[in-house]
């Protein structure tokens, strides 16, 4: 085995073989993620079907403006990620690092705004199980809406946080010059994950913010 | 890396290349990981078996006199949880699957060796949670965690158990993902899909179920955890939740999981039946595609667990019909194995006895499954010992028997040693007799109306229960004997040559035990599997290889 830093692992025949295999693995992993969120979406759909009025009522208490801004920010972060992958393909190390850092910046802003929303909802007493003071005709069902609101966006935020960690590691490796146009699988794999998490939000946003 | 190994078969094989503890705990060799998993699963099987022993002892007498009802609830919960998630689901995929998949397809390792090792560590972590639960005082929800009991009322260690299962789910997914990608991308030259051994097909189908179903279980467990932690009403009808929704989510995983627990056994059986009747499998493509058909249909039948739970009548009818459809690919397999035996040159070596036991016991379990898929019958025998016996015939009579058959068949390849034949045949027969004596009476008990999950019962059920417990003690001998003589064989067994069964698979065309990278050079595959000749049992065409 040669000593070049990008020699393929022993079980593969070539670097190309290793890349193809890694991508397929990443896609299949994202398939498991779809099923993971899918189960939750089904549960949400059941209750929304059972309690349409309460879900609309709950939805009207979310912050539509901040949610919409956040959607835009997340889409921009995905664009940054796509540009980072392009930079890696073109051997542009500085641009690669820059776009990865921008991805992190927009991702962090998203989480900051989300945290601010959570804080406000807590103050308004909309957090079931912890501080829930909402009284109204459908209080129990509105609580159910907010259980799903917090659980779905929370699970999404956990995925974002993991993603930010991974992008940071990739950015560090990119800065150290570990990637090139002939070896950028980790960048593209991370990109796939980032876009997936972004896509989840694209579904969450209308389901939670735009019921009416 | 890539040390050139000495040519002799006893030097530099994957077991003797390095003896340090560190070399085992940091190994990324799929064969060593398979061995690590086998050892771990054996301990968990014994733990789950101990719980079963206490259950059967309690049921010798009609009065609940050995353990309290609370203790009994914990016993059957632990038995179910350990046996399902910590033995049966990982059983063949992580042990024989890990060891054999790369070898059968002529690869040097799995596609993601480090992920493979991680899967074992994650599995250990999940098992530790369950071990902690056993020590701290147990869990009493049954393995099914039905809400709102599990989410609101149970005062036992539900969260820790659910966490253990959640964590173990990752290890399942890692293994399943690894197997799928390995089969797609790592096959040797010439090994197209229709030259794959049927064991590979069955594990491919199993892995598809694992990666698609396990995440749904994960989300269901998270929702239970959330409800318990915060007291919110996701599944609590008092707070607007729907307890049936939990059952839907749970069985969306757990019914396909039943096929995770049988498909690998079918794969092993296909290998054993062909080798020991020295015949090409009858209807290769049908057997291969029936695995995929079972995997796909398995996703569409979960509602048959809920016939009496209050789902809609039309839902029940559709689920009943779809459940009947699963019988088609299952029967395809049974008939094809039987047709393979026809005019074969059959020898009753130990693995073959296990394989034939598998066919008989699986057929019994499958046919009673059809009774249960029929709505009116299910309403009568739901939650009785009939159901208990049915799924034990599949999961224990089927899967565990096939697992043992596979362990015996590949033992020479894994360890380089032959197991002692006579006592092994005796153990295999003991298992078959003991199993039937344990579980056949339970069909009758269930038909007579004895409900499951009670530690006391009316006097008229005693005779059959005593029979069942007597059978269980014979069955226990059938399980303990192999542990003793297989360990014995490691030290005193005869050395095995590379291909003691004259089998055709690629794994037999390299040394026993294999070198770390499995093959001296990547084999080229020229023919399909199972090129045996019943007229001349000595004759066979290996799938490819480096020697010959």
Mean pLDDT of chain B: 94
Tally of DSSP β-strands of chain B: 2
Structural class of chain A: mainly alpha
Question: In total, how many domains does the architecture of chain A comprise?
Answer: 1
Shape of chain A: elongated
Largest beta sheet of chain B, briefly? 2 strands, antiparallel
Strand content of chain A: under 5%
Strand fraction of chain B equals: under 5%
Can you give me a brief rundown of this structure?
The complex is a heterodimer of chains A (212) and B (548). Chain A has helices at 15-50, 52-59, 64-89, 93-123, 139-175, 185-209, and strands spanning 126-127, 131-132.
Give descriptors for this structure.
heterodimer; A: 212 residues; Four Helix Bundle (Hemerythrin (Met), subunit A); two-stranded antiparallel ribbon; elongated; B: 548 residues; mainly alpha; Cytochrome C Oxidase, Chain A; 65% helix
Walk me through what this model shows.
The complex is a heterodimer of chains A (212) and B (548). Chain A contains 6 helices and 2 strands, in the order H-H-H-H-E-E-H-H. Chain A has 212 residues and is mainly alpha-helical. A two-stranded antiparallel sheet of chain B has the order 1-2. Mean pLDDT of chain B is 94; it is low at 1-10. The two termini of chain B are 28 Å apart. Chain B is mainly alpha-helical. Chain B has a single domain, classed as Cytochrome c oxidase-like, subunit I domain (Cytochrome C Oxidase, Chain A), CATH 1.20.210. The chains are: A mainly alpha (212), B mainly alpha (548). At the A-B interface, helix 1 and helix 5 of A face helix 7, helix 8 and helix 9 of B.
């Amino acid at each position: 085995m040669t000593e070049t830093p990008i020699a393929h692992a022993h079980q593969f025949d070539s670097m190309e073989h290793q890349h193809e295999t890694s991508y397929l693995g990443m896609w299949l992993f994202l398939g498991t993620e779809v099923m993971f969120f899918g189960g939750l979406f089904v549960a949400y759909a059941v209750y929304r079907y059972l309690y349409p009025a309460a879900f609309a009522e709950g939805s009207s208490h979310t912050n539509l403006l901040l949610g919409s801004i956040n959607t835009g920010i997340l889409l921009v972060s995905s664009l940054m990620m796509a540009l980072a992958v392009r930079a890696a393909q073109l051997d542009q190390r500085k641009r690669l690092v820059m776009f990865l850092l921008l991805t992190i910046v927009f991702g962090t802003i998203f989480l900051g705004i989300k945290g601010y929303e959570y804080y406000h909802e807590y103050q308004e007493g909309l957090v079931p199980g912890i501080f829930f003071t909402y009284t109204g005709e459908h209080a129990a069902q509105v609580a159910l809406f907010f259980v799903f609101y917090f659980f779905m966006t929370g699970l999404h935020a956990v995925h974002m946080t993991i993603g930010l960690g991974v992008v940071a590691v990739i950015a560090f490796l990119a800065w150290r010059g570990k990637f090139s146009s002939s070896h950028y699988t980790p960048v593209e794999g991370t990109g796939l994950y980032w876009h997936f998490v972004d896509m989840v939000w694209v579904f969450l946003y209308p389901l939670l913010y735009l019921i009416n | 890396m890539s040390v050139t190994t000495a040519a002799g078969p006893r030097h530099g094989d994957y077991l003797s290349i390095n003896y340090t503890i560190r070399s085992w705990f940091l190994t990324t060799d799929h064969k060593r990981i398979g061995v690590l998993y086998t050892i771990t699963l054996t301990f968990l099987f014994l733990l789950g078996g101990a719980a079963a022993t206490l259950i059967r002892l309690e049921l010798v007498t009609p009065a609940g006199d050995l353990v309290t009802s609370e203790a009994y609830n914990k016993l059957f919960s632990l038995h179910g949880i350990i046996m399902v998630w910590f033995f049966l689901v990982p059983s063949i995929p992580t042990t024989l699957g890990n060891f054999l998949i790369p070898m059968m397809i002529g690869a040097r390792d799995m596609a993601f060796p480090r992920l493979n090792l991680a899967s074992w560590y994650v599995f250990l972590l999940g098992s530790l949670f369950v071990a902690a639960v056993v020590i701290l005082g147990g869990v009493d929800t049954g393995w099914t965690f039905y809400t709102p009991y599990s989410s609101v009322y149970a005062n036992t260690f539900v969260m820790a158990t659910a966490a253990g299962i959640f964590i173990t789910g990752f290890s399942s997914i890692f293994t399943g993902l690894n197997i799928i990608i390995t089969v797609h991308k790592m096959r040797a030259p010439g090994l197209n899909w229709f030259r794959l051994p049927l064991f590979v097909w069955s594990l491919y189908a199993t892995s598809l179920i694992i990666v698609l179903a396990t995440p749904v279980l994960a989300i269901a467990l998270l929702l239970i955890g959330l409800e318990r932690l915060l007291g919110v009403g996701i599944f609590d009808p008092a707070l607007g939740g729907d307890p049936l929704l939990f059952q839907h989510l749970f069985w969306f995983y757990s019914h396909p999981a039943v096929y995770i627990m049988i498909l690998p056994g079918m794969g092993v059986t296909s290998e054993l039946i062909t080798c020991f009747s020295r015949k090409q499998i009858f209807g290769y493509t049908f057997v291969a595609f029936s695995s995929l058909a079972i995997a796909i249909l398995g996703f569409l039948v979960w509602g048959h667990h809920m016939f009496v739970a209050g789902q809609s009548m039309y839902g029940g009818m559709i689920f009943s019909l779809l459940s009947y459809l699963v019988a088609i690919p299952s029967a395809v397999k049974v008939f094809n194995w039987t047709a393979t035996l026809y005019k074969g040159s059959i020898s009753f070596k130990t693995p073959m006895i296990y394989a034939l036991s598998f066919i008989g016991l699986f057929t019994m379990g499958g046919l009673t499954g059809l009774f249960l898929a029929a709505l009116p019958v299910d309403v009568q025998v739901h939650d009785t010992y009939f159901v208990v016996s049915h799924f034990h015939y599949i999961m224990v009579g089927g899967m565990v028997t096939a697992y043992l058959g596979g362990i015996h068949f590949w033992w020479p390849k894994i360890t380089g040693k032959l197991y002692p034949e006579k006592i092994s045949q005796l153990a295999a027969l003991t298992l078959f007799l003991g199993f039937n004596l344990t579980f056949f009476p339970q069909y009758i008990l269930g038909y007579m109306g004895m409900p499951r999950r009670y530690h006391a019962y009316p006097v008229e059920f005693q005779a059959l229960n005593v029979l069942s417990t007597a059978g269980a003690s014979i069955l226990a001998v059938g399980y303990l004997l192999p542990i003793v003589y297989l360990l014995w064989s490691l030290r005193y067994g005869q050395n095995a040559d590379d291909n003691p069964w004259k089998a055709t698979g690629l794994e037999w065309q390299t040394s026993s035990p294999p070198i770390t990278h499995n093959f001296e050079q990547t084999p080229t595959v020229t023919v399909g599997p199972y090129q045996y000749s019943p007229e001349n049992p000595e004759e066979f065409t290996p799938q490819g290889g480096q020697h010959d």
